[in-house]
């Protein structure tokens, strides 16, 4: 399906030829757009004159003009006995019982102007007309006006009327006439076309593309010679064991392809040339991820899992757990595998406290090989056995290890090289060299001389798998413009990097959303990254594809903040803070990296600093331009941190509450307030800090002092939302509303609104289960989401009203009209500004 580009309002008069082109595009909009998409009034900005607006009441009196630099419709009424107006016809599809809201910009140069909603039946008969309390405007300036109403029985269409009534005289200019129904599913906002895992066989690459809870992942077969997709296969699942995506792919010795998925820990097999994959079932146990797969002799496949640190084998139709569970004491992850077929030994990289072991598949002997200098790392993220050496990737350092058998039968490892700033994947050895990307350039490592040699070649992709095609190195992986295939001939130096044609294009789940300083709604993709941009009330008629192309360049977005004309973006991993000027280009500018702050051995113990940080769930801005970022630490650590960054002054990351993450922030009363979670990073055991209670802290920008303010609640798990409201600080701690005066931060009040979320079974809620939001268009209320419910609270009485309940609802932001936005999986939803 071709992507439709929305036709936004043009801010100045158009030339005749441009107006004709615009008119053609407007009239090409379906008269009955999909029920889940925006309702679009044809020519609602009068860029094409009065096309789409039918005469109403007294003939004449309305003409297209340019006013204040904008295309507009002028209503001129000089006759107190006549009524002038135009109605958007034909009307848009409408449903009886549904509330609709009309928005417009009007400049009443003299007299009074009126805006009406009109409801008609299938024959065109007028059933009702509604002008809200804000349906009229006076004053010589542009003013936002609205009208709303509920469609009566028999309604088939809804339309807009700009009007000057009988007995009225005056001149008004109209622009930006927009409409929304009460609840709108705005559809997919972000797309991904990059693989998570790649393996090779028989001249083809087999690339696994991650989906969402509502869109299954796909396997793409790429012909290496032609660099085109020859087959796409959807990975099946069931309601009981849904498949969202996968990180593991391997080619067995018999040439068959195996895929490991999540969150159902399933193994799939694909026989090249067939039309479907075979579901082999779950790889034992109740864990959720198969992180890596390696081929063994005789068609066997070995695998590693999260979250029970299991090492397993699939052989002749059966799964077998190997060794103990977990395979390494305390391990939750078997994150990486490498197999030595000559010795029938498997190397396992584990976490969240980094481990590296050699497991003898014949005797069951286990030997620890991790160099002591890396014991404070969280994970051995990648392993390859090639060229008689073990290559281990740990936090962008590639270790080259020489493994030797000792006299007592044990095995030890000697470090031949430690190469920094290396991408995860590296090639099989050929002619004594292993190839990899380091700092964006292709490099080689000579096994015998232990030397690294750089080339000037920039592959321009994150390689997910390498192979050799004759004497040519081939890599496939993710780039900003989709999937790329890279080829390099070491003999001649010739190389190429090209986009692969025909790869799967799948929706990406929305992980974070927020309103930008340009009034658009920004969304950040889960796992596969990418950024979506939506122009409120101007979406197209295709809700299964984004209105605008996905912006590439960022990994998973965890938070968004509009502050002093910029959009600040918190990105995982390594807690990266970016800034974006909507008037400038994309991608955004990297400002600070929390993953480079602190020491891997530290965890905010007495006398220590913070550990490196990872997940930036909270952002807040100060009046002097400072941006504050609250974070969850790297895998296996408990202590989050507060980052303070200001342009020109750089940034610093501070310990604030030991053994707790910082998951909410707000600036109020001259200080920054933060809410903590007793849950640390993934991989900590137990999940919640023993005996801990989430708390509130304050940071004084003037002195740097940090104070904690205990909550009047019994062992709260997390404070997941904070907002400044009329000079007070409001927050959500579990299901309770907390409020305080920043001048007296220890005098905290608490009011139970909802039952506490199910943190035991859904620990991710302890990072982000709630949002609080103020909306300038509604000064009497505060809005929020918690536990699949969208609600509002009366600012004066603290009375709470649930406005909507949607399973899977998360996040909350608002546009310039006061409409509310939330997400469910990969789809963005809008609730029109509630009636007072």
How are the elements arranged and paired?
Layout: H1 16-27, E1 53-57, E2 62-67, E3 70-77, E4 84-88, E5 92-93, E6 99-120, E7 126-130, E8 136-150, E9 157-164, E10 170-181, E11 183-188, E12 191-192, E13 197-201, E14 204-209, E15 218-223, E16 228-234, E17 245-251, E18 257-262, E19 266-270, E20 278-282, E21 289-295, E22 301-306, E23 311-315, E24 318-322, E25 333-340, E26 345-351, E27 355-360, E28 366-368, E29 382-386, E30 389-394, E31 397-405, E32 411-419, E33 422-426, E34 433-438, E35 441-446, E36 451-454, E37 462-469, E38 472-479, E39 482-488, E40 495-499, E41 506-507, E42 510-515, E43 521-525, E44 531-534, E45 557-563, E46 566-571, E47 576-580, E48 589-593, E49 613-621, E50 627-633, E51 641-646, E52 650-654, E53 661-668, E54 671-677, E55 696-699, E56 706-709, E57 719-725, E58 728-733, E59 736-741, E60 744-752, H2 765-768, E61 770-774, E62 781-786, E63 789-794, E64 800-805, E65 810-814, E66 820-824, E67 827-831
Antiparallel strand pairs: 1-4, 2-3, 3-10, 4-9, 5-9, 6-7, 6-8, 6-9, 6-10, 11-67, 12-41, 13-14, 14-15, 15-16, 17-18, 18-19, 19-20, 21-22, 22-23, 23-24, 25-26, 26-27, 27-28, 29-30, 30-31, 31-32, 33-34, 34-35, 35-36, 37-38, 38-39, 39-40, 42-43, 43-44, 45-46, 46-47, 47-48, 49-50, 50-51, 51-52, ...
């Amino acid at each position: 399906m071709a992507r439709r580009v929305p036709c936004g309002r043009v801010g100045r008069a158009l030339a005749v030829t441009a107006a004709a082109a615009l008119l053609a595009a407007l009239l090409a909009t379906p008269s009955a757009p999909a029920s889940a998409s925006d309702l679009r009034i044809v020519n609602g900005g009068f860029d094409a004159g009065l096309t789409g607006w039918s005469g109403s009441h007294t003939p004449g009196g309305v003409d297209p003009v340019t006013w204040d630099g904008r295309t507009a419709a002028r209503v001129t009424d000089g006759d107190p006995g006549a009524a002038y107006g135009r109605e958007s016809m034909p009307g848009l599809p409408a449903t009886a019982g549904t509330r609709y809201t009309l928005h417009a910009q009007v400049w009443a140069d003299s007299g009074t102007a009126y805006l009406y909603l009109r409801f008609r039946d299938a024959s065109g008969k007028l059933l009702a007309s509604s002008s809200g309390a804000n349906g009229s405007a006076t004053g010589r300036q542009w003013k936002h006006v609205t009208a709303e109403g509920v469609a009566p029985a028999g309604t088939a269409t809804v339309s807009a009327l700009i009007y000057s009534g009988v007995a009225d005289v005056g001149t008004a200019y109209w622009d930006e006439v927009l409409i929304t129904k009460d609840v709108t599913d705005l559809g997919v906002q972000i797309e991904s076309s990059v693989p998570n895992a790649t393996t090779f066989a028989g001249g083809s690459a087999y690339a696994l593309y991650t989906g969402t809870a509502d869109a299954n992942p796909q396997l793409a077969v790429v012909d290496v010679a032609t660099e085109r997709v020859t087959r796409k296969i959807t990975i099946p699942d069931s309601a009981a064991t849904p498949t969202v995506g996968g990180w593991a792919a391997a080619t067995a010795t018999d040439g068959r392809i195996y895929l490991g998925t999540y969150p159902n820990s399933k193994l799939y097999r694909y026989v090249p040339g067939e039309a479907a994959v075979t579901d082999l079932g779950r790889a034992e146990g109740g864990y959720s991820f198969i992180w890596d797969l390696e081929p063994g002799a005789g068609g066997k496949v070995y695998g590693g899992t999260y979250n029970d640190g299991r090492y397993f084998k699939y052989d002749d139709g059966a799964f077998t757990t190997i060794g103990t569970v977990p395979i390494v004491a305390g391990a939750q992850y078997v994150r990486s595998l490498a197999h030595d077929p000559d010795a029938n030994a498997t190397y396992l990289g584990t976490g969240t406290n980094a481990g590296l072991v050699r497991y003898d598949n014949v005797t069951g002997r286990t030997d620890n090989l991790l160099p002591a200098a890396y014991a404070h790392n969280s994970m051995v993220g990648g392993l390859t056995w090639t060229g008689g050496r073990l290559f281990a990737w740990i936090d962008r350092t590639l270790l080259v290890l020489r493994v030797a058998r000792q006299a007592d039968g044990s095995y030890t490892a000697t470090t031949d090289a430690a190469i920094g700033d290396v991408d995860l994947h590296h090639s099989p050895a050929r002619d004594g060299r292993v190839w990899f990307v380091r700092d964006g350039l292709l490099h080689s490592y000579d096994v015998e001389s232990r030397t690294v040699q750089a080339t000037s070649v920039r592959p321009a992709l994150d390689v997910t798998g390498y192979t050799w095609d004759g004497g040519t190195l081939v890599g496939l992986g993710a780039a900003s413009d989709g999937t790329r295939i890279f080829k390099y001939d070491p003999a001649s130096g010739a190389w190429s990097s090209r986009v692969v044609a025909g790869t799967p294009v799948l929706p990406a789940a929305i992980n974070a959303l927020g309103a930008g300083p340009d009034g658009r709604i920004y969304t950040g993709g889960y796992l596969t990254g990418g950024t979506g941009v939506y122009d409120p009330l101007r979406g197209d008629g295709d809700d299964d594809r984004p209105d605008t192309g996905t912006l590439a360049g960022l990994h998973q977005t965890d938070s968004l903040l509009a502050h002093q004309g910029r959009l600040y973006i918190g990105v995982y991993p390594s807690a990266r803070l970016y800034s974006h000027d909507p008037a400038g280009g994309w991608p955004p500018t990297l400002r600070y990296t929390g993953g480079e702050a602190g020491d891997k051995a530290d965890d905010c113990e007495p006398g220590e600093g913070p550990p490196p940080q990872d997940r930036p769930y909270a952002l807040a801005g100060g009046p002097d331009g400072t941006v504050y970022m609250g974070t969850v630490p790297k895998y296996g650590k408990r202590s989050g941190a507060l980052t303070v960054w200001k342009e020109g002054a750089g940034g610093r990351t501070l310990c604030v509450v030991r053994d707790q993450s910082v998951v909410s922030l707000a600036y109020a009363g001259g200080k920054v307030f933060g809410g903590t979670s007793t849950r640390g990073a993934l991989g900590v055991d137990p999940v919640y800090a023993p005996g801990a209670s989430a708390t509130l802290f304050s940071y004084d920008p003037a002195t740097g002092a940090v104070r904690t303010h205990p909550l009047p609640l019994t062992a709260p798990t997390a404070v997941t939302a904070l907002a400044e409201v009329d000079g007070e600080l409001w927050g959500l701690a579990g299901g309770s509303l907390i409020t305080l005066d920043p001048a007296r931060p220890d005098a905290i009040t608490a009011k139970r609104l909802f039952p506490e979320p199910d943190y035991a079974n859904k620990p991710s809620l302890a990072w982000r289960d709630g949002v609080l939001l103020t909306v300038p268009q509604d000064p009497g209320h505060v809005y929020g989401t918690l536990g699949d419910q969208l609600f509002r609270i009366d600012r004066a009485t603290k009375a709470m009203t649930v406005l909507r309940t949607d399973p899977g609802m998360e996040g909350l932001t608002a546009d310039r009209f006061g409409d509310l936005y939330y997400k469910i999986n990969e789809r963005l939803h809008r609730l029109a500004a509630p009636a007072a």
